[in-house]
Amino acid sequence: MNLITPGVIQNLVSADSFAKLSDVSMGVYYKAKAKGDKAAMEQAAGYAVDSMNSANKCSKHTQKALKEAQQKAKKQAKAEQEEAIEKHRQETSKNEKTIKEKKITDTVEISKEGQEYIDSKDHAKSVQKTENKAHKAIKNTVSQEQYTSEAKSDSLSADSKFSITA
After folding, report:
1. Measured torsion, CA atoms of residues 24, 30, 33, 35, in degrees rounded to the nearest 10
2. SS3 sequence, 53-117?
3. Cβ count near 135 (within 10 Å)
């Protein structure tokens, strides 16, 4: 929002005009003083004081109008911010609903024959054979003799107990 409202502009222009009028009155005052005309001096001083008082009033009105414009701008900014927050909340809620609706899950279909195989004893035997082969491979690898830099051989062995489940 623009803080320069018509009221602010009007009071600024008026205050400036009264200040310039006061300057003119003071010029008349100094000329009258140079001539020694006391009546003209008093009249010019009176105009100068009145002009300065009017400029001061306009300045106060300008400050008041400017404060009102600032308060209005703050209220408007706050309302716009709240509106933006609410809009963001609505978009977030909408996006979450969309994500939940479109949530992709991986599924696996097992054929009837495959399910029968898994349930059968053959499957259990197949798993046992795989476990035995893996156990032998690990045991052979770990049981090999290891040579050190002193040409001695050390035999390594390890008990391996594991299972593979499918």
Report:
1. -80
2. HHHHHHHHHHHHHHHHHHHHHHHHHHHHHHHHHHHHHHHHHHHHHHHHHCCCCCCCCCCHHHHHH
3. 15
Residue 69, beta-bridge partner list: none
Instruction: Report the residue count for the chain.
Output: 166
Contact at 8 Å (CB) between 110 and 140? no
Structure tokens at 122: 């053959």
Tokens 């400029």 locate to 55
Could you tell me the pTM of the whole model?
0.47
What residue ranges do the domains of the chain occupy? 6-101, 120-155
Q: Are 160 and 142 in contact (CB under 8 A)?
A: yes
Which residues on neighbouring strands pair with residue 145, listed in sequence order? 155
Token pair of 41, please?
């001096």
Q: What is the pLDDT along the chain (166 residues), one digit of tens a residue?
A: 677 888 888 888 999 999 999 999 999 999 999 999 999 999 999 999 999 999 999 999 999 988 988 999 899 999 999 999 999 999 988 888 887 777 666 677 878 877 777 777 666 677 777 777 777 777 766 555 554 555 544 444 445 455 555 5
DSSP 8-67: HHHHHHHHHHHHHHHHHHHHHHHHHHHHT-HHHHHHHHHHHHHHHHHHHHHHHHHHHHHH
